[in-house]
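Please, structure for the following, as tokens.
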Amino acid sequence: MAERRKTKRRYLLNYGRVYDQTAQKLLGYLVDITERGFMLLSEEPMPVGRIRELKLEVTTDIAKGPYINFTAKSLWCEPDLDPSRYNIGFEIVKIEQEDIQIIREIIAAYGFRDN
């Protein structure tokens, strides 16, 4: 697959939990992130092209509230090296400007290498 990412993703030292807002269900753990998208490690595969309302758990040193909310579209889903897990790539399609700043702060605080 040709690389289409416009910004370098940042792998994280702290894997934040990502929830489906509608189902109030844990979807998986944040592995890497940019202002435009992220990769999730999940126990369940996800159909490509699905748009979901999500929330990312954040720490109090980064944000006032416990979550940031956004809309994201699944772009790809592949098995992880661990056969019981899946890596899922998302594009963030709707997010508040102040939450983009929180993502920048997450990258600054917990990012440890570019890819």
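The domain at 10-114 is CATH 2.40.10.220 (Thrombin, subunit H). Residues 97-110 form the longest helix (14 residues).
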